[in-house]
Specification:
Length: 189
Amino acid sequence: MGQALYFTKITTNAILRAQLLEAKHKKLQLMEARREEERAAAAERLAGEEAAAEALRDEVAGKEKTLAKHRASAREVSVSGREGYKLFFWIGVSARFWIVLNTLLFVFCFQLGSQNQDLMSKNLELLERVKELEKQHSAEAVRLQQWLQRELGVCFAELDALVHVCLQRAEGQDPNISVLLGPKRECAL
């Protein structure tokens, strides 16, 4: 009776370990799915920001064309005195503004590219870690499966011996019960 309890505990432990491994595997799959969603969201944000940057570049190009037209018309129109000075002052301020804006756009795009690169490298690191954990857990699962097969083989042999003794007893023969009481090996994970 004690030996059956021992094998029941061992089998229960193996089942619990297998369930634990399954839970860990599901958790890793959920983490990988979340990371993939985060990466997709970052890619969408980057695409939107790139589109906004392109729209701003187009707007700057349009403003530069307008500025060039104003400069050309300012050269053609001979404005004297104070009004000419105001016109050239406005053109100079406007040009400086667009240069600063263009510089800011360049810095912004550079920062976005840097952030995207960081996110991509983190994503690759996480994927490598998931693969390592999957390999580790698959090796553990194979080892547990082999152990379970050995234990089931031993249990099957004992059950077969018990059935054989019961059949001999049912046929009225004197069974050799010492077969059931033989030395048993210790099972280790």
